[in-house]
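name: query_chain
kind: protein
chains: 1
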Amino acid sequence: MNFKYGRPSARLAALALALGLALAGGAQAQSTLRIGLAEDPDVLDPTLARTYVGRIVFASICDKLFDIDEKLNVVPQLALSQQVSPDGKAVTIKLRPGVKFHDGEPFDAEAAKFSLDRHLTMQGSFRRAEINQVDRVEVVDPLTIRLQLKSPFSPLIAQLTDRAGMMVSPKAAKAAGDKFGTAPVCAGPYKFVERVPQDRIVVERFKDYWDARRVTIERIVYRPIQDSTVRLANLKSGQLDLLERLLATDVDEVKKDSKLRLATGTELGYQGLTINVANGEKANNPLGKNAKVRQAFELALDRETINKVVFNGLQKVDNQWVPQASPFHMDKFPTPKRDLAKARTLIKESGVATPIAIDFMVPNNPESRAVAEVMQAMTAEAGFDLKIRVTEFATSLNEAEKGNFHLYFLAWSGRTDPDGNIFSFASCGGPLNYGKFCDKKVDELLTQARTATTFSVRKTLYEQAAAEILPRGGVIYLYHRTLLFAHSPKLAGFKVMPDGLIRVTDLKLQ
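structure:
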């Protein structure tokens, strides 16, 4: 026997060990789904959170009372059913039995009441305005709650398909207090493991999930990568399996790559410009104080050209808070075309001297920067001087709250009911009304639209509100995005949902 090669049994054992390690490593890698995010989310507390990218993460860790399907129908999740009283002022919700939170605590009526009360009463809650027609939450029996309303509230169930419907563990929330968002404990298919800011959020499969048969991937790693080019390069190299918000200019590249897949949809929300009309000292500028200047600014914009130059025509230009496909879209308010002569006339009538300097806060991503630069050139022809200030997204939200802007390029991912796209932004006390636009007539109309129970009445009320908001309000609506995702062919079961969130149940890595 030639010993320089070692004993056959030893060689075989070594080969077997190496093969076993390789297979184990491969299996481990295959059980981890890596998702590229366009930004780092804000706090991971469903009561306090504000960002779209945060909602993507929540979709894996925090189940809601209800969800939506691909056709925008409300479907059960942690709730099984709902029944509205004849007068519309009470909603009885039956809860799913046998559900556990990630800490092993049971989900029941007391836990549901705790979560809803927390949304309604916690300091800094961004959910309060979404469900503030709820007067009180009653426990009927261990698996039934009843929401007593101040008045009928049409958007209620739609609101409970999002963060307002997310349930948190009372035990964990009480123990953590305002630090709950650093280690959230919910009842979703995955449980929180760790977060390294600007680097990763890691969740792992919750073995006691109520619908565990639909969860096959062991771990998900969310990677915030602001640079879209780097995000796509990571997907191409195999460092990511899925990315959200692919650049429109990269669509053709993805289509031509046999190792990538493109998935698309149309968002429920909008991309718009928030104007500081009454939020602190920086509201004291011509754009914020003069409606004619705001109208002139909008008339200096050419939405179609912006769409073609920046997005290859993929977006849906519009001037409203709901997309064209929504039955609540208002045809009587067509999107204005660019009219430079009229814009100049309005500025002259306003008596404001040109150039009109504007502090324009823009979130730091390539498409937003490109749109801002095109708008800068367009509006300069009417007498505006847009001073672009590129800001990290979470920082921009904090700046907006403080009123440190004249104009803010802000997106809203959208909700299934139109109330979710307008009330928090245009009502006087709306938590997302960063420009502090306030009009008592608009408040009354938007509140009536919440309490009306028929489609025709609600649409009429929104049309009346739009007649006040569109010419002088705090937001200029620009377009509705086409949702663009790219992923590896190894990922199966991925569907683009109308809300743009990534549902992780039923996903598989081949």
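note: Residues 8-30 form the longest helix (23 residues).
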